[in-house]
Amino acid sequence: MKTIERVCCISCGSNLTTLKSIERFPIYMGVTDEEAHKDIFADLTFAKCSRCNCVQLKNLIPLDILYKEAHTNSVGKTWLHHHASFAEFINKRAQGNVIEVGGAHLHLAKNLEKNDNIKSITVYDSNLFCYGNKETEKIKLREEFFNKENVSVKPDAVIHSHVIEHLYDPFKELKDMSDLIDDGSFMFISSPIIDEMMKDGFTNAMNFEHSYGVTKNLLHKMLRHCNLRIVEQSDFNKYCVFICAVKDSKDLQEDYNPVENESYYHKFINYHDTELKRIKSSLEKEEKAFIFGAHIFTQFLLKYGLDENKFVCVLDNDERKIGKRLYGTNLKVCSPKVLKNYESPIVLLKAAQYTNEIKCDIIENINSDTRFIL
Ligand SMILES: [Zn+2]
To answer: For residue 9, how far is its CA from the centre of ligand 1 (angstroms)?
Structure first.
């Protein structure tokens, strides 16, 4: 597979300088039924802009390959709470015909459907029908990547949740969305805050799907570029922000070009250098251990130098993943229920913002003698 080279900064167009490359990283964050030799790898290469310091990946995976498989991750409590909160945030202002970009599971659309002021919700996503989604009187489904040329009804609002971090050319693509709406109409955004996630060592922050460092600073710059003025900003939590912005073509500030503080990237790398040593020494005395998460949490640690032979299997709560193989590794996925069969098993659990939810479930419902490396 040939990767797409990002030749200039997404934010200011200047040159990129390579910071670090993790060779042969699995391109897909999920599980597979295929044989291991079919897995595709690419170098995960972190770079930064020589002018504005924006951290971004240099190698990008062609979209049709990257999103070939639908995301079948289960939706935990954190996500359900997120969608309900974001819908509440949107409902304060949204009305008429709205477009949602992304949103395959329809969790957000179903929440918005209850709002009488919203006439229709058209959802654009390249994977929709695989989830068994059906159109309703209000919810219209368009199984395709969003493209402004294919929008037939002028929307009164554009909504997207956890989409902006997936865009390869975010300034242009966000502008395409804002071009669809008139002055006075709204865009509602839910975005992860990648720098905050990386500062706390989250391995699900920057990867082939999230290919640049979304910071609040950068979001503000993007919105100005698109003639969108923030009217409300609310932190869902430390790692996720909701923004409501209004289209205001008079609010042009083309010269707004703040620089990014890339110290979060160095903190992330230093943290993992130390963390790998600590995990290796904790596992030294153990004959076999378990590792949680048939996802990038595990792939990252293995690619960063942890020996996969140390683990019996990968644990994951998602029943659809059980019995399959974690992409890019030789590890099979099992339900955490297997921990019942072991006496004080040890689990390496580093699942970012989901860690606590998962740990409580294992202790309370599966095996209270489970030990954790967190
Ligand atoms: Zn730049």
So the answer is: 5
228 Cα to the center of ligand 1, angstroms:
20
Percent of the chain clearing pLDDT 70 (strictly above): 97
C-alpha 78/C-alpha 90 separation (Å) is: 18
CB 315 within 8 A of CB 334: yes
What's the token pair of residue 46?
């972190």
Count Cα neighbours of 211 within 13 Å in the Cβ-side half-sphere: 26
Q: What's the rounded Cα separation, in Å, for the pair 172 and 178?
A: 10
Ligand 1 centre distance from Cα of residue 53 (Å) = 6
Q: Per-residue confidence at 45, pLDDT binned at 50, 70, 90?
A: very high
Least confident range from 159-173, 193-207, 349-363: namely 349-363
Query: Which CATH fold would you assign to the domain 285-373?
Result: Rossmann fold (3.40.50)
Q: What pLDDT does residue 254 have?
A: 64
Under CATH, which number does the domain 77-247 receive? 3.40.50.150
Q: Where are the domains of the chain?
A: 4-66, 77-247, 285-373
56-89 exposure pattern, b = at least 16 Cβ within 10 A, e = fewer:
bbbbbbeeebbbeeeeebeebeebeebbebbbeb
